[in-house]
Amino acid sequence: MVRDDAFLIREPSLSSFLSSFSEQERRLQANNREYNTMFGYPNNTIKTSKYSFLNFLPLNLFEQFQRLANAYFLILLCLQLIPQISSLAWYSTVLPLIVVLSITGVKDAIDDLKRHQNDNQVNNRPVLLLVNGKVEKDKWMNVQVGDIIKLENNHPVTADVLLLSSSEPYSLTYIETAELDGETNLKVKQAISVTSNMEDNLELLSAFDGKVKCEPPNNKLDKFTGILTYKGNKYLLDHDKLLLRGCTIRNTDWCYGLVIYTGPDTKLMQNSGKSTFKRTHIDHLMNVLVIWIFLFLASMCFVLAIGHGIWEYKKGYYFQTFLPWEEYVSSSFVSAILIFWSYFIILNTVVPISLYVSVEIIRLGNSYYINWDREMFYAPRNTPAQARITTLNEELGQVEYVFSDKTGTLTQNIMIFNRCSINGKFYGTVYDENGETVKISEKTEKVDFSYNKLADPKFSFYDKTLVEAVKKGDHWVHLFFLSLSLCHTVMSEERVEGELVYQAQSPDEGALVTAARNFGFVFRSRTSETIMMVEMGKTKVYELLAILDFNNVRKRMSVIVRTPENRVMLFCKGADTILCQLLHPSCRTLRDITMEHLDEFASEGLRTLMVAYRELDDAVFQDWSKKHSEACLSLENREDKLSNVYEEIEKDLMLLGATAIEDKLQDGVPETIITLNKARIKVWVLTGDKQETAVNIAYSSNIFSEEMDGVFIVEGRDDKTVHKELRAARNQMKPESLLETDPVNTSLTMKPKKPFRIPEEEPSGSYGLVINGCSLAYALEGNLELELLRTACMCKGVICCRMTPLQKAQVVNLVKKYKKVVTLAIGDGANDVGMIKAAHVGVGISGQEGMQAMLSSDFTFSQFHYLQRLLLVHGRWSYNRMCKFLSYFFYKNFAFTLVHFWYAFFSGFSAQTVYDNWFITFYNLVYTSLPVLGLSLFDQDVNETWSLRFPELYEPGQDNFYFNKKEFVKCLMHGIYSSLVLFFVPMETIYNSVRNDGTEISDYQSFSMMVQTSLLCVVTMQIALETTYWTLINHFFIWGSLGFYFFIIYFLYSDGLCLMFPNVFQFLGVARNTLNQPQVWLNVTLTVALCVLPVIGYQFLKPLFWPISVDKALSRIRECMKHPLPPPAQAKMKHIHYRRRSAYAFSHKQGFGALITSGKTMKFELPKKSSTSLKK
């Protein structure tokens, strides 16, 4: 055990240590809230919500008025309050504006209320708090800096706490850090000796008044420095003594800790990133278009005001007897200024406020489709997909980059013993009576392990020949499983007789020991000097002589044991690339056979290990043991000396075989990745896991493939090396990108002030990139970030491993900064929250790593393969529908509004409206609202099956092809053309025209009736042409709205209403007197034909003369629909010879070997401390 004085800080060390602190530092004292409150530290409350009761109204209104259209209507409302220029009532704008703001505000409030509820759920979790010498129950949110709390087994850690003592010998505490770094392997922490002696003595803990001085809150998960001052002595604190919020206590009955950081100051929350108000690219585009429309509106008003001034100067001045000027109008110039604002109000419908109401309704409806999708419902956990935010639906149809976590997102975080090779024989494949390979399924018969009472009932294996070999007593099979059951650092716990619980430092190692257990070689318990085994029902005790622990350089571990037969045996397992060099020459033939088996394992994406042994002469071992002891006691270069000593004994090994473990992917992950790649979506894996594991998963999930021209590995330890490696990769992919004449390099030399957008660069082949967190730290610096981005974006797949949560967010932000693309981040742990918040769209997997990612996400579901349905079906439909909606909405309002412009030239620019006031009121509210909502909620160009089978249909969204500035100009031109037809055709129709009875028809009200009827017929036919998926609802909305128009005008223009309210209803009998004339219907027919025929011609000719990729896909679908739909082909994984990728079954950190042999983990040496009972 380490001596107490090893933790003491002498004064010179203390002064140098304090000098490293910045001016800001945290000071606290245990059990002294009065002292700690002086510093204003926050309590343990967390907040992921945006609003509070007090700030909701101003903050929400501020966010809503960031939409220029809302600000535009506010200005319009102010203008309408001025009677001199107002030609419409003020309430015609204020009521719709209030409705829009209210609907959006209520929706935002409901969304934020859910966040408040989730926050409350976390903040009100129970915690055991030491108060006045008693352990009392309290809530998480009430914990403060300096409090001492009690944590129990399998409970999450409440805050960042300094470990004081635990139930385990030497105050060891085992933790799982899945929420922090995505790893489920066990890690160990140890309290400093001065506090470990307090154990669970509440008197000593309550009297503890140590003072801590440490670094201020930061986001570095693996670093912590501080000093504990207690009873005049000072003790150095480091990361190994700190339990972080987000960890879970494992294999430890209880522990006590001093709270250092709380709530927003915890390292978990420091890595969570800030909640931002996410807006879609279409929202940003609409803001730009509103500015364009505003300028277009102003220019129209300016032209009409000039026209009015000229008309008043030349004609109106002389007709004042009939058209008198108002008192405040002194000249034609003043009249023109007032008319400018009058037309500004009349023509405001080019951007009707109902646009935003409709957008919110459409988004809400498409969000419910996601919630209701049974194909995205995960029955085993009874969890549906959920759209937690309703403003990002169409963004799902434009994604180009997906950033995914690995553990729990791509994988199930379950390791399964799948195959093995023993003495040259292959085990794990099942054959039928004809010798054909049987595909494993739920119906496949499992091996019966009933002969083994200690077998794990959850373990499954299907090849019966291996069990038969075990039962027959095959020497090599027994030795193989004996090796697996002895060569490890797993901890065993048996609280109930026969029920073993293994705590492994890596899940791979746990899977191997569990496999050996089921086949009859049960690891039951260990001490620092012995390992107890149950071999085929017989209990045996092996003397543990040495553990030659794993590290990343050795890539292997060994144990040396003395068997009950007094033989000294060395068992070794490790990466095949390493062990092959350590084998005895006599194993050459067996090695070649095993290598073939390893290639087959690798072809299935399995994680492999080689297993070997060596029998040692007792004298040789004794001689080696002395050297080992000397190396252990060495004060200089201890690690190098130990490594050299290990190599002396780990040689001339006899090969036993190899293992293959499946890091079980979630269902459908490889097929999903293939589909996303076909849709031109790049997948980057951002993980905290080790490089070998991440690369292995990249191959098995089809992010990397063996057909690639190369995979670049960036692992430089300084900026120069990283820069060199990135440029070398880029030189291989696209050599011309390094030349000064390259367009990107030319643009960069000009040092643009605005953020420079890097275009897509095509490499000369298919490549992958692997970069670790250390190299990434340099690559993300200002002078290298563009090198990293350009290199990574040329690659088909990118794997970033050993990343911190902050680095994940930085990578996402880097792509957002320099690429004009939509990004999506998907993860399941708290370590993914930063990137989920940073991406344009955040998706949370409701997995096994807590709720933090889910609570911070925009969309949630349970399985990664649902992502393709979310994007290719719901996202694509939402984008297409929104684009159709916007194109049609702008068109119909341009056609509606611009008729006023042409009419002005025939009305003396008098700001008189063409239409009846009731038609103006109902046009967007009633007559055209339901058809466009029907289009936007139900339209499908192809169904979900074709959307998934033809991923290339997704590409138009990525290019924003269906609605952009160019399409908007087309809508404007189309609207101008239609408005010309709608005005001049009726004008010429009634000019000098008479009715059937000989009376004139050319009056204002009849003209207005003809124009508005023609307009509604035109826009109705237009939306009918836009609709590709007809339902009863569409028919009812489209034709029903047109029919309702005719019903309502007969009602509004009836004698009864007009006589009762003559000032409100002024079109007395116009409907029945106009619509019974044949020339009116000829006018309607001609108008519709002139407006619609060019559209039909354009839609027919466009795919013939200007085809895009989606047109070709749609033509193939139409061809396929003529024949019966074949069943979708299952994506087959190619079984080819992979380069061996041994993702060896160890943690990325130093193993537990030294800890085990030190005896600190052994509960028999120090009896487990009994926890003081909870006092009420």
TrEMBL record:
Mg(2+) binds at residues 405, 407, 828, 832. Its EC number is 7.6.2.1. ATP binds at residues 405-407, 509, 550, 573, 607, 687-689, 802, 808, 831-832. It is found in: Endomembrane system; Membrane. The active site is at 405 (4-aspartylphosphate intermediate). It catalyses: ATP + H2O + phospholipidSide 1 = ADP + phosphate + phospholipidSide 2. It is a multi-pass membrane protein. Pfam families: Cation_ATPase, PhoLip_ATPase_C, PhoLip_ATPase_N. Residues 855-1107 form the P-type ATPase C-terminal domain. Residues 29-94 form the P-type ATPase N-terminal domain. Residues 738-757 are annotated as: Disordered. GO terms for biological process: Golgi organization; phospholipid translocation. One of its GO terms (molecular function) is ATP binding. InterPro entries: ATPase_P-typ_cyto_dom_N (IPR023299), ATPase_P-typ_P_site (IPR018303), ATPase_P-typ_TM_dom_sf (IPR023298), ATPase_P-typ_transduc_dom_A_sf (IPR008250), HAD-like_sf (IPR036412), HAD_sf (IPR023214), P-type_ATPase_IV (IPR006539), P-type_ATPase_N (IPR032631). GO terms for cellular component: plasma membrane; trans-Golgi network. SUPFAM superfamilies: Calcium ATPase, transduction domain A, Calcium ATPase, transmembrane domain M, HAD-like, Metal cation-transporting ATPase, ATP-binding domain N. The chain crosses the membrane at residues 65-82, 88-106, 288-311, 331-357, 885-906, 918-938, 968-987, 1007-1025, 1032-1053, 1080-1101. The keyword Transmembrane applies. Belongs to the cation transport ATPase (P-type) (TC 3.A.3) family. Type IV subfamily. NCBIfam families: ATPase-Plipid, ATPase_P-type. This is Phospholipid-transporting ATPase. It comes from Trichechus manatus latirostris.
